[in-house]
Amino acid sequence: MNVGVVNYGMGNISSVVKKLKIVGANYKIINSSNCFEDVDKLILPGVGHFEKAMQNLKKGNLVGPLNNSVLEKKIPVLGICLGMQLMALSSEEGKSNGLGWFDAEVRKFNIQDKLNFKVPQMGWNTISINKKSDLMKNISNQSEFYFIHSFYIKCNKEEDILNTTVYESEFVSGIQKGNIFGVQYHPEKSHEIGEKMFKNFIQI
């Protein structure tokens, strides 16, 4: 089992690698298009700006190999935070198109109660589990994960919604379609519950 962690210059690579080591997974850092060989799983982490991230993926010639691995070879992939948002069609954060793996757009929080709800959302929050998934095995409904984000994904197909979370209003915090998984929260920063999720993913 080899987990490829995609490095496009904006991911929280060290924390992801640390969690993979804890759960005993073999991993390799994917820095270029020729690093996708012998990879059984992919993680697309991310922190930062949507448009800049897409520019980096294109500049590194990573979009084609990603599409081939995920859409053609059906290799399981987990997008984390910005990594999940990149799976959408587009984002309000810039003008670049996303990877387009989901019929979804990325929107900025439009908070009304600015006294009680700050942007970015930063800290622990609960998730609702909207459908059965191997990624959620042994993870209870309303489990707490760590969030830090100003944008969220608007999913146009209800069947793709894996998790929802309430921050003033409800938003999509997890998505899944076949072999493609995405979470808005950070399992690599979520202690034991995050370790459970990483174990689940490498066993898919």
Please give a structural write-up.
Helices cover 23% and strands 31% of the residues. The protein is an alpha/beta fold and 204 residues long. It has an 8-stranded mixed beta sheet with strand order 2-1-3-4-13-12-11-8. It has a 3-stranded mixed beta sheet with strand order 5-6-10, with no helix packed on it. The protein has a two-stranded antiparallel ribbon with strand order 7-9. A hairpin with a 1-residue loop joins strand 11 and strand 12. The N and C termini lie close together (11 Å). The mean pLDDT is 96.
Topology:
Elements: E1 2-6, H1 13-22, E2 26-30, E3 41-44, H2 50-59, H3 63-72, E4 77-80, H4 82-85, E5 90-91, E6 104-108, E7 121-126, E8 128-129, E9 144-149, E10 151-155, E11 161-167, E12 169-177, E13 180-183, H5 191-203
Short description:
The chain is an alpha/beta fold and about 200 residues long. The chain is about 25% helix and about 30% strand.
Order of helices and strands: EHEEHHEHEEEEEEEEEH
Radius of gyration: 16 Å
Spatial arrangement of strands, main beta sheet:
2-1-3-4-13-12-11-8
How would you sum up the global shape? globular
Largest sheet: 8 strands, mixed
Roughly what percent helix?
A: 10-25%
Number of strands: 13
Secondary-structure-based class equals alpha/beta
In quaternary terms, these chains amount to: single chain
Distance between the termini: 11 Å
How many DSSP helices?
Answer: 5
Q: State the low-pLDDT regions, or none.
A: none
Q: Beta-strand level of the residues, as a percent range?
A: 25-35%
Q: Estimate the mean pLDDT confidence.
A: 96
